[in-house]
Write a structure and sequence with these properties.
It is a single chain. This protein is of the alpha/beta class and 297 residues long. Helix content is 37%, strand content 18%. It contains ten helices and ten strands. It has an eight-stranded mixed β-sheet, with helices on both faces. Strands 5-6 form a two-stranded antiparallel ribbon. Helix 3 links the parallel strand 7 and strand 8. Helix 2 packs across helix 3 and helix 5 crosses helix 7. The protein is globular and about 45 Å long.
């Protein structure tokens, strides 16, 4: 099977049920960890072609179905209600990523995480850094803030109410939360993004009904991260403000920080050329992955 840009494409599932896709035929793997919503294909239009063209074997994967809490009504009937749970937070995604690395028998290789994916990679670096040769963390943070807490409360209340706004309204909210003023000022681009967000809402792929558990305060732990790290902030990011990403970089020994202008939370899609340049330049600084290196236990 051929994928984006004509690259070879192989699909499969881990023993735990995680659906993954291998893109390209290179012997230097890089694993891309998506944000909330969890569809690995979000990387396929821009990042996968750039990486496979550079000779990389690219691994993308889906987070999998989100669990629901079972409750019992007064009549004895079971009902399902979404709840804020670590079952689909950073720790769970970190564990799923480790399971993927193990199932594919990958040598230590670079990880690229965005948003929730970046939070998961941060946690993985604290427990399984021996599996990683370097990490790029995009749109990340090491702690919560007032806006994040307010959004979590709002999305938790909406999820528990059993109702959700019309797709058109949800699309508008996602548009202004995820993109930069420069994109919003471009009427053609804004219209295209609205269509994409509305489709996501209609198909149930929006992350609006998947509120995350409390983040806590993590920077004090990041001093234990031993691998090369690049943190990428997006200057107009509302959901993961750039200064919070800079805090993460400051807390990790030797980590670097770079920031893309005119980019919101989805900056890797909004400014893919600039993001891909930063990504490829970072990967070039890492020691080459040895495909014959002993696998970790």
């Amino acid at each position: 099977m051929r994928g984006p840009g004509g690259a070879a494409r192989t699909t499969g599932r881990t023993p735990g049920g995680t659906a993954y896709t291998l893109h390209g035929t290179g012997d230097s793997p890089v694993v891309l960890v998506a944000g909330a919503g969890g569809a690995g294909r979000i990387w396929e239009h821009h990042q996968v072609p750039a990486l496979t063209a550079a000779g990389r074997l690219v691994v993308t994967f889906d987070h999998g179905p989100e669990p629901t809490a079972r409750t019992t009504s007064g009549t004895g009937a079971d009902t399902s209600e979404p709840v804020v749970s670590e079952a689909y937070g950073p720790l769970a995604l970190a564990a799923r990523t480790v399971e993927l690395l193990t199932a594919l028998d990958l040598p230590p290789c670079p990880l690229v995480g965005h948003s929730l994916g970046a939070l998961a990679v941060q946690e993985l670096l604290l427990t399984d850094a021996h599996r990683v040769s370097g990490a790029l963390l995009a749109a990340t943070r090491g702690r919560s803030d007032v806006l994040a807490e307010a959004l979590t409360r709002a999305e938790t209340a909406a999820a528990r109410s059993g109702t959700r706004p019309p797709p058109e309204y949800e699309a508008f909210v996602r548009l202004v939360l995820n993109l930069s003023p420069r994109t919003l000022a471009d009427e053609g681009a804004a219209a295209e993004w609205l269509d994409l967000f509305e489709l996501a809402a209609l198909t149930g792929e929006s992350a609006a009904d998947r509120p995350l558990p409390p983040l806590g305060h993590r920077p004090a732990d990041f001093g234990r991260i031993p691998v090369p790290v690049l943190v990428v902030g997006f200057a107009d990011d509302v959901l993961a403000p750039a200064p919070l990403g800079r805090e993460v970089a400051s807390a990790i020994p030797g980590a670097r920080y770079t920031e893309l202008a005119d980019a919101g939370h989805l900056g890797f899609l909004e400014r893919p050329g600039a993001f891909n340049t930063v990504l490829l330049d970072f990967l070039a600084t890492l020691a080459p992955t040895d495909p014959g290196a002993p696998r970790v236990p």
